[in-house]
Amino acid sequence: MRQIELRVTELAELFNSLDPTPFHHRDLDRDAEEFLESWALEHPPGSDYRIVVHIERMPSVDPSALVADAVRNYFDYKNLLAGRALRRLLAEGRTCLAIGVGFLAVCLAGSESMRLVPQSPLAGLVSEGLLIGGWVAMWRPLQIFLYEWWPIVRKRRIYRGLARSSVQVVAVPA
Q: Is-above-0.85 flag for pTM?
């Protein structure tokens, strides 16, 4: 289990102060979120985490369950958003692939038809230009399906790990 330690002066520093909802439904503070994510990214995907929050001014009631719920809810939500982004990206990839394949087919047919034209430097230039243009049209779908989806999947793994992490809140000794 990988341990991530976070130190705050008071409990409210963990949460986004502009969010009016109750603590366990609130957004985490942007700095706290970035801190937790950056530490989690340093560990192998699929790691289990224990988050220890050190609070200088501890509330009178133990906030461990509240903080654990807030962390779980927040990173479950981030995982959901990343899943939506992944689905949108893959849908865009399928659309780009359909357009790219169609355009490539037209360009290949155009290039082949240029071979029927008597050989001239201009016909050769147009033929090669159509071939290159057709293959360039495949750039975006290949980029999506080969590279762009991996970082989103990695973030989702991190979010799932953080959502199921055990959370402990401890008072900083005076």
A: no
